[in-house]
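Changelog-linked ticket: nickel (II) ion example.
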Amino acid sequence: MAILNIRIIGDPVLRTVADPVTEFGPELARLVADMTETMEDVDGAGLAAPQVGVSQRVFTYRIDGVEGHIINPVLENSDDFQDDVVEGCLSIPGISFPVRRHRTTRATGVDVHGNPVVVDAEGMLARCFQHETDHLDGVLFTDRLEGENRKAALRAMRDATYNKHAERTTAKRAKTVGSSFGGASSAVGSFGQSVDN
Ligand code: NI
């Protein structure tokens, strides 16, 4: 197994609609195992394959000690909504806002062997399934925000992108002058909010 590199906002794979999985072989098993290990490593609540650069409809989850994965998920959401909860995203470090999500959802899909899976979810698990399935459609939680929160998120993301470029430029410069201080900035920062997926 391996820890995978998590893609950060600005990477086109995060805005691409992922393809359905059609091959259920060792490569898929390795992807699910690596995604699970990566999610544990960063203490995330969930991880979608596009976040590790793989444009396929796979996500892993880890809520209240329960771990799992769903391939080719289809959600049947309730019409009503749960109380807003602050979400973050491993691909949008340092930004978190309350998001509106359906109260319950039924996730239907298959497991790594191609066997049917049905999970009825409420609360944080339902929230996680909606967040991860959005990733498979190229949708980020910040797209779900409205009004002032949306404006604040867009502003913060612009700043984050700017800082990322600035860091990269600094690291490049450091290399060219033979200094060794560059490159230490981690893409995945602090977690403290309730859901980071
Ligand atoms: Ni996310």
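Closing comment: Example verified and attached. Helices lie at 26-41, 123-136, 147-176. The longest strand covers residues 66-77.
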